[in-house]
Design brief:
single chain; mainly alpha; Arc Repressor Mutant, subunit A; two-stranded antiparallel ribbon; 3 helices
């Protein structure tokens, strides 16, 4: 999945952290919710302006960042 149209970086918003569609919710926020045990449905219920595609974009972004980090270590 390409996350480039969903994950945005704006220096003046949330200290430049990767956000979803220019909103003030970060990739980190969504990953933390998932790690704490929230399901996709829980997140979508609590944040109705998010979509399933937004959550998947966060996961794809995190996977890509991990892959790039592994490449840097090599």
């Amino acid at each position: 999945m390409s996350y480039s149209d969903i994950i945005t970086l704006e220096p003046g918003k949330r200290s430049g952290k990767p956000c979803i569609r220019g909103l003030r919710i970060t990739v980190y926020d969504v990953l933390e919710y998932l790690a704490s045990g929230m399901t996709h449905q829980d997140i979508l219920r609590d944040f109705p302006y998010l979509t399933e595609q937004d959550i998947r974009a966060c996961l794809a972004f995190a996977a890509d960042r991990e892959r790039k980090w592994e490449m840097l270590k090599a």
